[in-house]
Amino acid sequence: MSTSIDRLVDELPSSNMTTRALGALDFIAPGQWQNVTGFDNMIRHVTGEQDAGIIQSVRDRALQLYGDSSQGYQRAIQLYQLVDGADSKVGWAAAAHKLGEKVGLLSFLSKLTPKEDTAQTFDLALKIALECSAFCYANGFPGDSISDFLAALKAYEKENLIRMAGIVTFDGLIPLGPDYAGRLSETIANFNPSDIEDNAIFQRVKGLLPGGAAFVGNAVSAASGYVGEFAGRYGVTLDSVLGRLNGFVDFSESRLDYLAAFLDVSTNYMEHTGIQSVSRSLIERAVGEI
Predict the structure, then answer these.
(1) Do residues 180 and 148 make contact, with C-beta atoms less than 8 angstroms apart?
(2) What per-residue confidence (pLDDT) applies to 6?
């Protein structure tokens, strides 16, 4: 059986490169995301309860639900973990970051491999499709229920919203530029499932994506309008994002592909916020059932 959800939330870091990168996106939706760590703390945060007996009852029911493999919670967590490839996060990325100090990219350039635009666009598409499937699994829908995902996407908030902000900025805006949505639309318009068969992310998650590569095209096509309007809707510009990231990472604005590669290997924002989202869904359901 996979690691229990309470342990996953208990082990979330309170401060690291991931939390700092996500914190830089707080201007998109001020106060929507809080880095809650510790499962009992999450129960208190979601429910507002302080009574130890109620907290224990919610915990017990949430763990029962998560432990039931017929539910989708474990599959959602697997998707979030696999897409970030936590095991591939090389040691230098963690060692390089000392809290309170800026991290410069120059000494790491030989260890970074920026992706060319087509590969980066496929990564963006895959993360959108994965978000669709993981959200559905975590909320009681079939993993390929694109219509339910789209209905929920328009009302995204809290951990879900900050994760989508990360997808759009870290995997879209920074590496692809302000026309990230146009590049995504062009790629999907000419999409052939065979195009992503060798993609590293796809290879990790394909066993959990219903419909495989074809699902990617369908999900991204359906969500492309929301993704394309995201920057305008939340007032996101490349300058606004870079200005906040520059508070703790030194980089050259002429080589944003290296910044994107650095964020890719030094953060696991989808796994981090995904664990928080799934725990919230579990707790809300547990409260309703007890």
Answers:
(1) no
(2) 97
- What are the C-alpha distances in Å from 114 to residues 202, 263, 271? 18, 11, 21
38 vs 42: CA distance, rounded Å: 6
Is the per-residue pLDDT at 90 higher than 60?
no
Q: For residue 198, what pLDDT is reported? A: 83
Q: What is the mean pLDDT of the chain?
A: 89
Q: Mean pLDDT across the stretch 119-131?
A: 93
Q: Which amino acid is at 95?
A: A
